[in-house]
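lol so apparently i was supposed to do this last week
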Amino acid sequence: MDNTAVLMQMRQLIQLLAKHNHAYYVMDQPEIEDSEYDQLFHQLKDLEQQHPDLIQSDTPTLKVGGEAQSKFESITHTVPMLSLGNVFNQEDLFAFARRVEERLPQQKVQYDVELKFDGLAISLWYEQGQLTRAVTRGDGETGELITHNVKTIRNLPKFLSSNDADIPALLEVRGEVLMPKAGFEKLNLEQAAKGEKTFANPRNAAAGSLRQLDPNIAAARPLAFYAYGIAQCQPHHGLSTISASLDWLNQLGFAIGEQHFVCQSIEEVQQRYEEIQQLRPSLKVEIDGMVIKVDELKQQQQLGFLSREPRWATAYKFPAVAALTQVEQIDWQVGRTGALTPVARLNPVAVGGVTVSNVTLHNIGEIHRLDVRIGDTVSVYRSGDVIPKVDKVWVELRKADQDYVQIHLPEQCPVCSSPVVMPEGEALARCAGGLYCAAQRIEAIRHFVSRKALDIEGLGDRWVESLLHLNLLNDVADIYHLHEHREKLLGIEKMGEKSVQNLLDAIENSKKTSLAALIYALGIRGVGETTARMLANSFQNLEALQAADLEALKKTPDVGDITAEWILDFFRAPHNLEVLDRLLAAGLHWDAPTAPTRQPLNGESWVITGTLSQLSRDEATQYLQALGARVSGSVSSKTKCLVAGENAGSKLEKAEKLGITVMTETEFLSLMAEYGQGL
Ligand code: IVH
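anyway here it is w/ 2-(butylsulfanyl)adenosine bound
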């Protein structure tokens, strides 16, 4: 990259970071995850490291944290409130321990392990045991005086008292203000009920509450304070470890973390970290990691600070739930039902503890909504064990000198080259080569042999898998050529002479079928058993159905606009026609379907309910369908007639309310008899 491009990228990142800083610190309405902010920040830091001569004076990398707000009095911290370095994995943690232990030769080092509270750091002054001031961290040097609000925090002592300990003349306690999870949820419910703004997370709720001018508002918010350190104590408390100081603070009336440990080795620290990660959901407060501190205060002093971070402590963050990465490619996958799903191939990135390199983009609509292009920087989000997803495309990070290829729906199936179709109103595009496409093969075969289709009972999943494996079933027409491969069939494990013969017989028997069963067996989208019967009855033969145009298809009872398009697309895909020809050549045959003139109930919607005594519900359904009626599961104003058997319930009530004709079983049977159906 030349200097101009670097400079442009730096400016872009600075602007973005400033925008998100404002949303976070001033508006208390963050728009992105903290981990995403950190990654943008690191991108900028990396650029600055590579091009130190181009560092901008307003870069946020030179500031410690939030902006001090003007609403409150500014206070300069006597002891600056610094930040912590981060580690994200065991390797980094062990490297931290190595650095510590190298500086403390021949000394035993113990580590204090604490929860890393996800709230706001504050400093509290107690003079002669009385809380006299509370100051936010601000930029680490200067913060805001918010004593009026902090005094309303219920679990925070306003006066120190202890049976065992002397009360120091001056004590400066550091800790975190936060909103416990239960209180946060309650507050958000109340805010929503009042029509007021809800908070993105407990930390922002805490921040928003502390930044109120009116202490009554803060008082009404369920805030809590947890202490984690002492900045000053006069006279000195005489304690020698941070863990002992925490217990002392606790004795003085301060809440400390639900858990803290002293570990004898860094391996034990790692174990505790893993334990706490498991416990995290059950803790009362939100944490974003652990803080690891050298326990011995004298050793802390020996280690000192490096720039603005202590060498004696580090934050061990939990894995990010969102991360930034680049889209390298977008491929289309064809599912077993022919649906085309776009999959983004990513530059591998760790999200929530696992490496993510592929992520589904669901459908072409999602691609347009996100405007995701090849080369884009994207946020990948994963919470709990939920499948990762692309959350956001960082259009702002597109570089002027790079091409970002837009994604279009392919015209041909990437597996079988059949046309790709997507009727209006549908979200998913599909391959039209249902009978031919290798991706859809298993599903197509299963459906073809199922009971209501060609009904080849012997051809179960185990057979299908073995046959696919032997390359004997490339499409459904191959079923009728299996007899040519008897030897290979006999070679399949556990398939003896008898089972092979049974299979071949079942296949032979299936050749005599009905036009409706064959149409159903083709697996055309939207064409179920009833629609297939309607199509068979309306068109009478396969040639007429194949030649039908959209209008003719739409006129068929039970065929909606979208299904009509699917049917048309199916017969337009040349590969499907080839398979169909081969099926017919293999000898599939059927009797002519019932003539359309014998369909007096054409297009009517009927419902059957209750228990029938003289025939089964399936039989009743078949009679009705043979006469052209649709049999539906629920009563609506479109229902023509309800057949009510014994113990008919709510459907009968509804039909009566809507004034729909109701028939008893006997009445139904005599009507069927009039039309020549039934007993
Ligand atoms: S000790 C020299 N202990 O983490 C700094 N900090 O980046 C010593 N935090 O904003 C800080 N839980 O407010 C410490 N148990 C804990 C903590 C903790 C949360 C926050 C702290 C600061 C940030 C450090």
